[in-house]
């Protein structure tokens, strides 16, 4: 069996195990057994529905970097008419690109762990990535104390055969614009909060996007009103308009700075309440462990204009990038697929990383 | 017992009968018995929980105008600590001003129906006024065929000892401003419906109020955004903003005209869906049956800058005005009261109307 066939069938096997977020017990057990078969039961740690595999002893390969290969095992809810098959150079299945293909590459590398040179790799399979942030299994894994000190992490999310370093941070905030209540038949006795919001909405509209450069990479900071809501009955001039404002800030910026900037933009009349917050991921495109490899493999390097778990690693002080098989545009699609070319490309590039 | 005492005790008796909207059976039966005792059972018609009383035969007093005295018998939900007593020149009770005081004046006049000259009065007590429009008992009464042809109607809602002719009409419409959906991390790929609404919101803000004069009366047409809502998740640039827009139009204008004006204001990009509609009430302040009486009684005449059941009469071709005891500012208040002065004033003015 060629490596292409092996990777394709492994991806399809993984797709055939239902693993919607909050229902990962079955796939976690499957992955756990696969890890134990490859590296021995003593190498495997299960934390809830997350699985760690560390085949090398901690005193083996002294001086070599500890490299984490990281993937989530859950998927979003699957489409009803999702095909499951290998056809026309693609693996079809729910989660094929996001990110059963990445998990398949990780398992194929684990099957050959003794052949991976010049590093001491560890494998992290975690649950809950597609659900709300508080249910994400990676945080507890990083906090568990079960891992060795990691020098670099590859997150095998789909990256269209490129490297995507860093990621945006975000805050969500409720900005409340006040008004003065009145009967809607006598609006001149009040002040309409919806109209009072116009100057702030104009500022947001005109804010545009702000480029933040890291070497050749451009991240774009944006600040967007994504929801509007009033809470009065319909025959009343509203005394408050709530806007959800989403600030996406670039690596190097912080949630605190973003909040301060939003407060300045909203002005003292408005109430600003931050409801969610996630840090940006630091940019490690030119990290010494990968810079030469990126050049040699001629990998396109693209900024991650969204939030990913890269931020969890870099916030914990661990350099990390997104690099995985599959197609970003296929993530969460009905009829999702991953190309076998991308599987082979990612597997080959990582094999060569360990051989460098 | 003076007429002041009689009116005050009658108002308190009416307040002591629970009659929240949808629970009017008890008070309807009480009013029905009161009518039958005053005018004989043959004079009384019960329609659901509405009661009609027509003591004069239809061939009596030929050539005299048929005058309706009109009041609703229900109240809003009562406050828990509402006092029920006569104290300091006031009657305290749930619904005292809105409008048990008016019903008391109606019943006191009915007790003396033989003494009422120069007209053929009928009494209309109806249910469901404080609930949604579709439950209002006056519509079925007017449609029932049980009434004679009415020449003029006094609605005894509280009017602060003045006459309030006409009333505003209204439409509510949902105006949907379209946008183009995008991920909130890449808003430049979409078009934000909230920002797209700014020009329309500016038009509404600047619309101000439009005076419509009837003789000395000024009504003010207004068009107000009273609610804003989006329906996307918070990490998405919204592709639609729904505004509830309330247009209050003056007597002489129509819901159709108001809708056309709103559509022109919103422009062709927006979707306008009318969700509620009520006609304006015509203005009869200088009607020959009341013009001289208003002058002689020196009654202040004020436009009704809201909707009332006057519109149901004038839409049915029956001239009508609001004129009743009680205080408009007390309607729906906790601790509601009606002043005995206002009861005596209204009763006296209507007695003199029948004597003119």
Automatic annotation (TrEMBL), chains A, B:
Pfam families: M20_dimer, Peptidase_M20. It comes from the Bacteria. One of its GO terms (molecular function) is metal ion binding. Its EC number is 3.5.1.18. Transmembrane segments: none annotated. Residues 169-268 form the Peptidase M20 dimerisation domain. Keywords: Cobalt, Hydrolase, Metal-binding, Zinc. Its cofactor is Zn(2+). The keyword Zinc applies. It is an enzyme of class 3 (hydrolase). InterPro entries: ArgE/DapE_CS, Bact_exopeptidase_dim_dom, Peptidase_M20, Peptidase_M20_dimer, Peptidase_M20A, Succinyl-DAP_deSuclase_DapE. One of its GO terms (biological process) is L-arginine biosynthetic process. This is Succinyl-diaminopimelate desuccinylase.
């Amino acid at each position: 069996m060629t490596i292409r066939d092996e990777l394709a069938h492994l991806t399809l096997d993984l797709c055939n195990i239902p693993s919607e977020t909050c229902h990962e017990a079955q796939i976690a057990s499957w992955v756990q057994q696969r890890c134990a078969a490859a590296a021995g039961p003593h190498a495997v740690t299960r934390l809830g529905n997350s699985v760690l595999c560390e085949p090398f002893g901690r005193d083996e390969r002294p001086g070599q970097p500890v490299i984490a290969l990281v993937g989530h095992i859950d998927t979003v809810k699957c489409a009803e008419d999702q095909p499951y098959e290998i056809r026309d150079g693609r693996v079809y299945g729910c989660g094929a690109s996001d990110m059963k293909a990445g998990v398949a590459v990780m398992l194929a590398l684990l099957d050959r762990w003794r052949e991976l040179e010049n590093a001491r790799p560890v494998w992290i399979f975690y649950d809950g990535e597609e659900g709300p942030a508080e249910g994400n299994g990676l945080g507890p894994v990083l906090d568990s104390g079960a891992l060795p000190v990691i020098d670099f992490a590859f997150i095998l999310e789909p990256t269209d055969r490129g490297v995507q370093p860093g990621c945006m941070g975000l805050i969500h905030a409720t900005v409340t614009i006040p008004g003065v209540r009145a009967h809607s038949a006598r609006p001149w006795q009040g002040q309409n909060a919806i109209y009072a919001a116009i100057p702030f909405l104009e500022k947001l509209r005109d804010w545009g996007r702000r480029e933040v450069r890291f070497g050749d990479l451009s991240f774009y900071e944006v600040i967007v009103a994504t929801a509007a809501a009033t809470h009065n009955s319909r025959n009343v001039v509203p005394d408050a308009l709530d806007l959800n404002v989403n600030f996406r800030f670039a690596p190097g910026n912080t949630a605190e700075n973003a909040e301060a900037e939003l407060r300045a933009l909203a002005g003292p009349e408005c109430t600003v309440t931050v409801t969610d917050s996630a840090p940006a991921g630091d940019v490690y495109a030119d990290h010494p462990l990968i810079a030469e490899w990126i050049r040699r493999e001629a990998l396109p390097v693209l900024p991650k204009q969204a939030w990913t778990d890269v931020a969890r690693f870099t916030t914990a002080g661990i350099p990390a990038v997104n690099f995985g098989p599959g197609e970003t545009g296929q993530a969460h699609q009905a009829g999702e697929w991953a190309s076998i070319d991308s599987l082979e490309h990612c597997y080959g590039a990582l094999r060569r990383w360990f051989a460098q």
